[in-house]
Amino acid sequence: MGQNQSAPGGPGGADKKKDGQDKKKKWEPPAPPPRVGKKQKKRDAASSLGAKLPTVTPSARCRLRLLKLERVKDYLLMEHEFVQNQERLKPQDERNEEDRSKVDDLRGSPLSVGSLEEIIDENHAIVSSAVGPEYYVSILSFVDKSQLEPGCSVLLHNKVCPKLVRELFRVADEMAPSIVFIDEIDAIGTKRYDSHSGGEREIQRTMLELLNQMDGFDAMSEVKVIMATNRIETLDPALIRPGRIDRKIEFPLPDAKTKRRIFGIHTSDMCPPPQADFRKAKEKVLYKKKEGVPEGLYM
């Protein structure tokens, strides 16, 4: 009597069918299409249309590209004409004021010196001559004032000063038109006497080099030499003769009107009270300084 074999439709087969049914994916309804606005539809349509357009060839010589550049040129010409019309319709006084302000910016601010006025600033000057136009030039200096401490002195080394004079005129000739301004020329331009020391001989060599350099410039040169001194009677006649120094301008002691103007220049930045009387202040100062007052010192 043997054991009964399990039929294929027994309990084991039923379990396998249930597992297969569970593994099957359940049916789900499809998702609704997203709602698209009119602008998005137009944008999508334009992008799809642009993708369908063919490429324009050639890229170097293209008629469409030429027409585009011509249209840009027309716009630029129209803008230029509009700007010109606006400038033409601007009042004459306003245009003159703009031109004057530009010239003032280039020429600098006026420097008042008593009864004289020159357009100049700290670094530039106006150079004019009788035979040529005016030039706006820069002022060069071999001495940096910020590097010199108070009380410094300049030593006269052997053959150094004549070399500096040659270098000065060489730079002035290269930077022409230019001005060579020598203040206190009586320090090296005094009358020549028999020298008894090395310093005096160095001064004479410096003046001789200065005379040689000044002989190399004629009246038509674009390098102008200006000298200043308070003791013109001590200068060597060879230095101030015609041909080297052609014009001599004297600045005499100021009169009462010029003194008043100088006083106004120095007090223009001050804010005195309305009741301030400068005449009474002057009389008070003169009353305290009656003895030993040089003539013409006060107004």
Automatic annotation (TrEMBL):
Domain ATPase AAA-type core: from-to ranges: 160-253
Gene Ontology CC terms, in alphabetical order: proteasome complex
Ranges in coiled-coil conformation: none
Entry-linked SUPFAM superfamilies: P-loop containing nucleoside triphosphate hydrolases (SSF52540)
Keywords: ATP-binding, Nucleotide-binding, Proteasome
Any one GO molecular function term: ATP hydrolysis activity
PROSITE patterns per UniProt: AAA
Gene3D superfamilies: 1.10.8.60, P-loop containing nucleotide triphosphate hydrolases
Domain Proteasomal ATPase second OB: 113-159
Region of interest (Disordered), residue spans: 1-52, 87-109
Biased composition (Basic and acidic residues): 14-28, 87-107
PANTHER family reported in the protein's UniProt record: 26S PROTEASOME REGULATORY SUBUNIT
Family: Belongs to the AAA ATPase family.
Protein name, per record: 26S proteasome regulatory subunit-like
Organism: Raphidocelis subcapitata
Top-level taxonomy: Eukaryota, Viridiplantae, Chlorophyta, core chlorophytes, Chlorophyceae
